[in-house]
Fold this protein.
Amino acid sequence: MPNFVQTDVNYAAEYSRALAEAYPYLSYFGAVWASPNSALYRPGMGKTMYIPTLSTSGARAVDRDRIDGVFTRGWNNDLQAVMLDMDREWDTLVDPMDILETGDIATIANITRMFNEFQKVPEMDAYLAAKLAGFAALYGGIDATTLTTANILATWDEYLAEMANRRVNRDRLVAYMTPDTYKLLKEAAGVTRFVSTDEGYRGIDRNVARLDGVNIVEVPADMMKSAYIFTQGWAVDVANAKQINMLLVDPLAVAAPIKYETSMMSAPTAQSKGKYLYYERYYYGAFSLMQRGAGFFANMSAAATLGALTVASAAGTVASGDSVITVTGALVYDSGRVPMDYALYYTSGQSAAVSLTYGSALPTDGGVTWTQLVGNPATIASQTAGKYITVALVEKTTGKVVAGGNTTLVVKS
């Protein structure tokens, strides 16, 4: 009989396809993991990807009586750098005698199925909930209103109105709620229910699967936190986590790619002391599309903190008092531009930085005035060295401040 040589079998591709089919049944956030963007944006070499983004100018009126022969480029392109930040692995040994003595219960198939259902997918959902809440905070979509049976419907209407004003299609939205929030919704006096008498039995279904056209998904509270620790498995970061009560998400505003690098099993060998060895390694992550930042909104137990902008000032090169201002930050492309629905504003000449509050309008106390920063870097004239400049990133449709920064001015003498 010829010798049988055992080799490792890598079935990562097949495993990935099987899990893709299972995610909608195992995951609370199946609509996001299965988003078309998750398949569109796939990592190539390494973990970092650069997502191309386009913006265009608006149309203008036609002049039927002349042409001036001057044509300009009406579009810009930017690159958004994103990274898969979850590089995970798992392995296990299985002794053939354990398989035999447990009546084929402790098989590799059963063990990996339990790992997927009770460890991997819940971990991925917890990670995704925290990331989605972070996206909502980044783009100005955080509210800390305490929800009650008396105010939940009115608050819900406010959220939907804000997202509609931000041009988010309601039919695409998914609302993720904790059981406590879902209970408040069921108990709200304004919710209309229909009781069917056509069934052969008497029953009342009090589920609220859709509200105003928005799909509702109930998610356990421990999987709706703003921060987790992923040392081994997942655990709530008790010291830093906030409770997420509700998440409104447009799945087309996010991509959550999963890349299976390795998934293999080795048959018993002398090196493994006669045991089966299973090993898998996978990357995953989630990132928002900056031009669709309006697709995230969250109700949390505490308000978000102001995002950070880094503001740099350098002496200008033309006139005395000129200062060149450069702004960088999470919502600023490498080109210096910001997403279409946002704008940079500045105020300067104060002896101290102007205080900004997340989610509030630009402050005008004490005669403070704000000017849109045109270009980045931008040269601003008639400045005084040593005075402060404060820059704010503002959401155009709501006027909310989402990020800010400041520095002292350096000017051309």
The chain has seven helices and 23 strands.
